[in-house]
Every structure is written in C-alpha cells, then in structure tokens.
Design brief:
Elements (H helix, E strand, L loop, with lengths): L10 E2 L14 E2 L1 E4 L2 E8 L2 E3 L1 E2 L9 E4 L11 E2 L1 E4 L6 E3 L3 E8 L4 E6 L1
Antiparallel strand pairs: 1-2, 3-4, 4-11, 5-10, 6-7, 7-9, 8-12, 11-12
Length: 113
C-alpha cells in the first residue's frame, strides 16, 4: 500500500449517514487519487463529520466544519483537530450526494446529485 497518503482512512459519522453516530457503523470514504477522498451515495438530512481514526471516546482527530451547523457547499474548507470545537456540517436535504475531500488543500465539496 502507498505510504504517501496524508490520511490512510477517512470515515463519516453522524445523523446523515445510515450508521448514525455509532462507531461500529461508520462509513469509510474512498481514496480516488493521492490525498483526494470521495463518497458518492445516499445521505439523510442531519449532521455529519469525518473521523480520521475510529476512536470510541470521540477524542480522535477529525475533519470538522469551519463553524457548527455549517452549510454544505461546493467549495468549502475544513479544519483537522481533536476535541473542541465540535463543528459539524448539516445536510439540509436527503438524497444522493457526492462529497470530495482534498486533504492537501483542506477543501471539501458537497454536491447534491
């Protein structure tokens, strides 16, 4: 496996994902290019954030929104840290979405398909 990725795994957790807030049911995103991670599929309306590790005490490093209840936009940014602030994106409309995270550029794109 290539050791040149900044993050080997990025997961999704929250109301917007079928597994909800359960660490046992996180959804893993897919690497599509070096440092580009994507998800294309169904999201519920609700909150979402992106752990970089599965750590049941919620203290692991995560990709967080720049503010809480952040609107998902096509050209957004994110922060990576542990702990507070626990800023999440809020998916306003259930349906099929494409999420693209560029780790290197700290950009995130949400597009409803």
């Amino acid at each position: 496996e290539g050791g040149n990725e900044l993050y080997r795994h990025i997961y999704m957790i929250g109301d917007a994902i079928s597994g909800g807030g359960s660490w046992d049911n996180v959804t893993e995103m897919q690497h599509t290019q070096k440092n580009i991670i994507t998800y294309e599929g169904y999201l519920n309306d609700g909150y979402i954030k992106f752990p970089t590790v599965i750590q049941h005490d919620w203290n692991g490093e995560m990709i967080f929104a720049p503010s809480d209840n952040c609107e998902p936009v096509e050209n957004g940014t994110f922060d990576i840290h542990s702990g507070a602030p626990d800023n999440r994106w809020y998916i306003p409309t259930a349906g099929t979405w494409r999420i693209t995270i560029n780790i290197q550029n700290t950009t995130i794109s949400f597009v409803q398909l």
